[in-house]
Amino acid sequence: MTVQLPAGNGGALSAALARFGHAGEGLPSPETIRARKEELAADIQKRLSEGSEALSQQHSRQLEQLQSLMSQQKTRFKLALDGQVKSEEYALSQQYNEQLMRLQQTAQAKRADLEKQATNLVLEFQQKKLHEEFLVQQRDIQKQHQEAQQRLTDELRKLYNGNPPESMNGTSTPQLPGGMGMLPQLLRRPSLEAPM
To answer: What CA–CA distance (Å, rounded) separates 100 from 64?
Structure first.
């Protein structure tokens, strides 16, 4: 059963009829319209599903490409960062080694200077000690010499009964080689010689 088309608004109605597949004159019945609508709705749903699936697949591919690109960029960035870190580590190690070498050289120079000063002080102390010992020995020798001279003078005075010869009236005791003074001459005096 068909119904005649009303006058006016023919353009929109013609488009609707064409979409519903009605090419004859008049309007299709409601049953025909519902059946065609269900077909068209199913087609729309099918296209929606296919479009959604296509978009999902495209989105997945784009995400994979993005992840791959990010992974590549991360790899390149990591390599570049590792290279930069290694370069900075090398620079820091070189700086550390140079500073350590200068520090060790400074310490070595200070130790050498300290050793030199200590050695000089020890030598100075030893020289001073030797000089003091030499002076003490000289004083002892001089004292022993003076004591020996005094004993010799006292012995001579005793031999001459307190009247020493004129050569002994001076301020110093007459000396002969060997430090014996007048003793050899006295030994040759008749009064000191043994009886024949």
So the answer is: 52
Cα–Cα distances in Å, from 91 out to 78, 80, 86, 100, 154? 19, 16, 9, 14, 93
For the record, the structure tokens of 45 come out as 């749903």
Amino acid at site 12:
A
| pTM for this predicted structure | 0.40
* Rounded-to-integer distance, Cα 118 and Cα 124, Å: 10
Residue in 133, 153, 155, 156 with CA at minimum distance from that of residue 145: 153
pLDDT one-digit tens code per residue, 91-138: 999 999 999 999 999 999 999 999 999 999 999 999 999 999 999 999
The DSSP result for 2-23, as a single string, is -BPPPSS-HHHHHHHHHHTT--
The C-alpha atoms of residue 140 and residue 196 are separated, in whole angstroms, by 44
Cα(164)–Cα(175) distance, integer angstroms: 14
Distance from chain centroid for Cα 17: 91
